[in-house]
Amino acid sequence: MIKVKTFATPIKIFATIRELTELDETVSRFLADEKATAVYSVSDSTTAGDTGETIGLIRVVAYEV
Length: 65
What we know:
Elements: E1 2-10, H1 16-33, E2 38-48, E3 54-64
């Protein structure tokens, strides 16, 4: 069965690399827990604040179990 899961994380100035590493670890742990047999797509998109600054990241993963 193919499934889709969305993850979100806030982005703070000067902390981005740590936040991206944590997001990668969260997604990897989730896929391992779900016993995913294949990953078909990983897509990242940013969210913006009132003045256009990047304030978050949304990652969508399509996978098979």
